[in-house]
């Protein structure tokens, strides 16, 4: 039976969690990243498509390769983060459906339907990117998701020949809270929600 998370857990995941641009000089282990991958792979996607693909940049050399594709305002925060993840999606995700959704021929739903392929890959890959953020926070990591980069250049540098397409970048590590700005406002319930 599910029980609500306590206030401490909700603070870590939501109310006290922030987007970080400045990082402590503290490494993130390969073992923790593997645990993060496993945890983030479990929540739902449409027909268990699991189109997200992740490239973990953990070395200075990999970060320097990425740097020319970044907007100027994202260079320092990315080079100083212990890990940067290229959150991408696989446009041939449906080839894995015999393994991932074996009780019916789900692959046939997508073959030849490029509009559905692109929509499913982007929509569900984005959803998995959000799961990755929440899983990282649950494991004690801080996050700095960002756009502000040249997708075509990232795809050329890191994803050539894979059929994968970059969506967004996610810096991971242990954030420097002393350099945070106050949290920006959010829309109110009245502004952003309707009950019908």
Automatic annotation (TrEMBL):
EC number per UniProt: 1.-.-.-
CDD domains named among the record's database cross-references: RutE-like
Spans through the membrane: none
Cofactors: FMN
Family: Belongs to the nitroreductase family. HadB/RutE subfamily.
Limits of the Nitroreductase domain: 22-174
Keyword Transferase: no
UniProt KW Cytoplasm keyword: no
Protein name: Putative NADH dehydrogenase/NAD(P)H nitroreductase EV700_3167
Keywords: Flavoprotein, FMN, NAD, NADP, Oxidoreductase
Enzyme class: oxidoreductase
GO MF terms, alphabetically ordered: oxidoreductase activity
